[in-house]
Amino acid sequence: MSLLVLSLLLATPIVVVLSSVFFPAGDIWAHLLDTVLTRYARNSLLLMAGVSVGVLSLGIFPAWLVTVYRFPCSKVLEWALLLPLAIPAYIIAYTYTGMLDVAGPLQSNLREAFGWRYGDYWFPEIRSLGGAIAMLSLVFYPYVYLLARAAFTEQSGSVMEAARSLGCSKRGAFLRVALPLARPAIVVGLSIALMETLADYGTVQYFGLSTFTTGIYRTWNGLGSSTGAAQLSALLLGFVFILLSLEAWSRQQSQFFNTGARNRPSDPEALQGLSLCLAYAVCGLPVLFGFIVPFLQLLFWASITYDTILTSDFAGYLFNSVTLAALTAGAALGLALFIAYGKRAFPSTMSRFSARLVGLGYALPGTVVAIGVLVPFAWFDNRLSEFMTVNFNYNTGLLLSGTVFILIFAYLVRFLPIALNTVDAGLAKIRPSMDEAGRSMGLGPATLLRRVHIPIMRGSLATALLLVFVDVLKELPATLLLRPFNFNTLAIRTFELANEERLADAAGPALAIVLASLIPVILLSRTLRQAGEAPSSLPQASLPSDENR
Amino acid sequence: MTSPALQLDNVSVHLGGKLIVDSVSFRVPAGGIGCLLGASGCGKTTLLRAIAGFESVSSGSVSLDGAQVSTPEKTLDIEKRRVGMVFQDHSLFPHLSVRDNIAFGLQSLNASKRDARVDELARLLAIGDLLDAYPHRLSGGQQQRVAIARAMAPRPEVLLLDEPFSSLDVELREQLAREIRGVLKHEGITAILVSHNQFEAFAMADEIGVIKGGKLLQWDNAFNLYHTPASLAVADFIGEGVLIDGRAVGEHTVETELGVIDTRQIQDFNLPGTIDISLLLRPDDVFHDDASPTKARVVEKAFRGAVFLYTLELESGKRVLSLAPSHHDHAIGEPMGIRLDVEHLVAFPKLPVV
Amino acid sequence: MIRKQLLSLATCAALIAAGCVSAAEVNVYSARSEELIKPALDRFSEETGIEVNLITESADALIRRIELEGANSPADVLLTVDAGRLFRAKEAGILAPLESEILTQRIPAAYRDPDNQWFGLSLRSRVIMFDKSRVSADEIASYEDLADPKWKGEICIRSSGNIYNQSLLASLIEHLGEEATEAWAEGLVANMARRPQGGDRDQIRAAVAGQCKLAVSNTYYLAGMLNSSVAADVDVAKQVGVIWPNQADRGAHMNVSGAGMIKTAKNPDEAQQLIEFLSDDYAQQWYAEVNNEYSVRADIPVSATLQGFGSFKADQLNLEALGKNNEAAVRLADRAGWQ
User: Fold this and answer.
1) Which residue in B88, B136, B237 is closest to A256 by CB distance?
2) What fold, for A324-535?
3) C194–A125: do the CB atoms touch at under 8 Å?
4) Distance (Å, whole) CA A414 – CA A481
5) Contact call for residues C122 and C287 (beta carbons, < 8 A)
6) How far is A547 from chain B (nearest CA, A)?
7) What are phi and psi of A207, to 5 degrees?
8) Which of the four CATH numbers 3.40.50.300, 3.40.50.720, 3.10.20.340, 3.40.1190.20 does domain B6-235 have?
9) Which among C4, C5, C220 is the top mutation candidate for probing chain A, defined by the most A β-carbons within 10 Å of its own β-carbon?
10) What is the interface size between A and B, counted as CB pairs within 8 Å?
């Protein structure tokens, strides 16, 4: 029951958005249909298709290589591949544009060196659909990588050996066994990446691409129709619901895809020669272009402007960002555990549906979520204020709106889905028989959680915690709209300077976001490695004791 | 003369710099079933994996059908050696139905031939009505049948089975082992089984190799291993029994705590040539006889239907085993008369007391 | 510092509930970024002892927030960076008229609301810039010329999603009528060197890089590049010339940043003081020097950088028109295919 209440509470912003479909929006729809809607839809679909291809190829192959092979620095690459998570999508867009744009240093130098003029040579247009796909793929592939790697690690080595013994080459075994087995996990990662893509505003706006997301803003700001904007958002939610259903279905499949205990983690094979070079390319390029290059560009810019960056306020931004991220990550983990267990303990269509509803927040543009959060909170505050004024002659004012509380609530609406996904996936690995075994030994639910589930799910829990942490650190739109007075974060600082087209000045706070995210990303990769070494989460097929004596 | 289906010559395998398999040689004729028997950690599984091609050999060679597939210089990839492998944990592909699992290695056949082969194996292994199910729905025994069918489907040169029955319960085990033996013989498939369970080995294999510490102690059929073990270690491992001390006091006389044995009554008996010897007493060598002057105290007993297996303690504290018809029911702690009735005996030089 | 932040974070909810009103204060919702307004606000606090609390965000979001917060909204003053949003705030009914002789005296009528609900505080013009190496200043004279086919493939301009382009379109609708403006927009789209992308500075850079000959940008962006700490930006900016459009007729399109007092303001006196302060000599000079904007007041000198752009005739259209025509402008852009 409390589960349902909680889910509904978290889903209020979504309901607010969805309810917009019952209000008239004038002739906005006729206008949109006549003019821009097809372009929005086409660009969004193309973007999603392109990002799918991008994150799958950037995520799956490195995950496979670092799991199955060993080569110099493979351990370093294993965690370095997560680093692009630390870079906000719009920041990577800014850095690459700064470098590759027609007016950027690369093209300018080319022109100078060869005496070319613009148009004399071909150069890929960075601010294009292709460019946006590349940018978003570079920062969102780690979701696929993370989940694919976990799936590959959990696969029993003997399943691969079985395939080899049945005449499959290594490649054949990968394609016919390892990949299909990892598919559910990969689909989960893909759906996270695609929801992030749908929610992205900064990159597509900067690149001048009209997508559903920019369309929502344009309808709201330009056409002055908040109802029309909300209705567009509701349409977007349709997309998302399909994605989420796909993801849920995939997760269900994965329960059956357990390959049994990880007997003898099949010895990583050493690579040499051409295949070594290829492995470096496959694992190194995502890190190079997703992290190192933009990082160096930021570092370069920051070196020009460092004296204006390190003001006394800077520590405050950093503190606010990190504190919010930590608080939200903790809260998200707690709630995700609560909801996931609720679903497990009382499976019902209702609890599944409410969990699904909560999941929708992730793909909505942050501002839409923020307004969806503000509507019910402001309503509550104002009713309370009226009530208190009438009955006690005391005006409570806006009790919750404009506080850190509402901000964290909005973050939860946006990011609880990733925590929930990850925790769900971890919980799915714990067979009901283990609960029963624990209960039979007299463990209460709390003890069971502490002594059995948490140790087993450690990797998943750490993943949930740190994904939310990093996402909050990068979050911008909801923070902008809902924050209290005089409250700034690194993301806001970065955005405001970048928005003034002062990229070099924006580099300092952007760099701080990256560095602050780096710590948890590194911690995450370490925890995952430890969790990987811990006894497998699946009960070992018990070997009968020696009976030959 | 045709070359044996499988031949190992002085095969050694190192893992992580450690010698795991130490100079093992044996051969299995086409259609024969061999078993590598040993306690866990003895190196038998590593040897099997070396035959499969999962591990490379550090010396010696493995030949399949006369062709060397593993030498220290070259390890032919597993997918090219035409060996089938059945894994301890079955390792069925969870994303494929039983039919697709079995057909996995039949890519080169056309659909109708593939189906025909799957159906044939399904019939042989009595899993015809499981073909559309997915592995997670199957019991352990069913999974094992599917795993064997899958490995046999491409008609491998040699089928390798790694502790195939260890996850099954005891009753099922021997029955399935005999059944699988029937199928293998029917198909004429050469097979190597790895097991730590001698009854499984007896039920399935033509010849058995006992492995200890990476060394092959003896390669022989079950009867010979039991009755004429080549070493104390083999004797100790195969069958139930205890070693008791004896003294060779004359050419044909051995004194033991249980009485004097006239070795002329025993077939094929040779004294090892030392005075202090160890004698292997099987439970069927020690008879229950209330009239016997030799008494021993019952320490443990196990009901086995027709017989009891008694563990008895002699006055010296030495323990022996005895099979007695189950109507001779003695309580634990009671003394019981016993006598030796040896038709068959193996003696080894007594090991120096450590 | 850290402790202060911790305090604000952990106890803000409690403090606000308890009404953390200690001294005189004024609450500002600003669409102008913190970097570009905070110094002036700090100066105000210094002079008056009135504490200023600040939130920055886009104007539309702030207007929506004030609407939703309703009677209890803490906002006293709304600052925006364009006239259209001030008009929209007025339409939303969240602004209160402010009867201030100081403001009506200082600020020309074209740059404030006829009902005194909002006041322009700084001026910027949207002008045509050109690469001096390839274009001479006499080749183009008006916004209308941007649609001339002779500039085919030679114009860089950002998205029509940007408010400054919407305001330019709105002013053209007012002057030329909707039909003529739509034809103009179609001509402009046909002349674009590339799909609209990036910000105003990007248009300037692209012109110098040779992708186009003309760029449309607000004046302060070019001034900002001239004063940039990034050497490359300075180099680019030096190669660009400014054309003041329509000097022969109505004058260059102007826009303002401005302020209005919120209807439900809890600190109306402080709000008025703040808006008046922002129109006084100090603040106006600060706008001119630091932000490279033009003062709304004729008596305030123009910054050295801006002087380099020359003097110009400004369009005297009342800026209320920009807000009124905004929706029509966006629809028109959608129809004309201006992304």
Assistant:
1) B136
2) MetI-like fold (1.10.3720)
3) yes
4) 14
5) yes
6) 7
7) -85, 0
8) 3.40.50.300
9) C5
10) 91
What would the DSSP string read from start to end of C25-75? EEEEEESS-HHHHHHHHHHHHHHH--EEEEEE--HHHHHHHHHHHGGG---
Domain boundaries C23-123+255-300, CATH class = alpha beta
d(CA C123, CA C113): 15
Q: Is A138 exposed, middle or buried (0-12, 13-18, 19+ CB in 10 A)?
A: buried
> Cα distance from A511 to chain B (closest Cα, Å)?
44
Tokens of A446: 């709390």
| Residue from the list C4, C71, C206 with its beta carbon closest to the beta carbon of A103 | C206
Neighbors of chain C with 3 or more C-beta pairs under 8 Å: A
Token pair, residue C207, equals 């012109």
B-chain residues near A183 (CB < 8 A): 95
Second CATH level (architecture) for the domain C124-252+313-336: 3-Layer(aba) Sandwich (3.40)
Residues of chain C contacting A102 with CB distance shorter than 8 Å = 205-206, 209-211
Given a contact cutoff of 8 angstroms between Cβ atoms, the answer to whether A421 and A463 are in contact is: no
Q: Give the residue from B245, B246, B218 showing the smallest Cα distance to B234.
A: B218
Distance from the A360 Cα atom to the nearest Cα atom in chain B, whole angstroms: 29
Q: Which of A156, A165, A180 sits opposite B52 (nearest CB)?
A: A165
Q: Is C197 in contact with A210 (Cβ distance < 8 A)? A: no
Using DSSP, state whether A76 is helix, strand or coil.
helix
Q: Burial, A510: exposed, middle or buried (Cβ in 10 Å; 0-12, 13-18, 19+)?
A: buried
Q: How far apart are CA A182 and CA A258, in angstroms?
A: 10
Choose the weakest-confidence range: A269-278, C194-203, C247-256.
Answer: A269-278
Closest chain A residue to C232 measured between Cα atoms?
Answer: A105
* Sign of torsion over alpha carbons C106, C111, C117, C119: negative
What is the three-class DSSP state of B123?
helix
Q: Three-class SS string for A95-118?
A: HHHHHHCCCCHHHHHHHHHHCCCC
Size of interface A-C (CB pairs under 8 A): 200
Q: Do chains C and B touch (3 or more CB pairs under 8 A)?
A: no
Beta-carbon contacts of residue C258 (< 8 Å; ≥ 6 apart) = C79, C80, C83, C86, C111, C112, C118, C119, C120, C121
Is domain B240-349 in CATH 3.20.20.450, yes or no?
A: no
Q: pLDDT tens across B22-80, in order?
A: 999 999 999 999 999 998 888 898 999 999 888 889 999 999 988 899 999 988 888 88
Exposure string over B41-75, b if 16+ CB within 10 A, otherwise e: ebbbbbbbbbbbbbbbbeebbbbbbeeebbbeeeb
CB contact (8 A) between residue A31 and residue C71? no
- Establish if A260 touches chain B: CB-CB under 8 angstroms: yes
What is the tens place of the pLDDT at every residue in A414-469?
888 888 878 887 787 777 777 777 777 777 777 877 777 887 788 788 888 888 99
Q: How many other β-carbons are positioned within 10 Å of the β-carbon of residue A264?
A: 12
Q: Per-residue pLDDT for A277 more than 70?
A: yes
A473 CB burial (10 A radius; 0-12, 13-18, 19+): buried
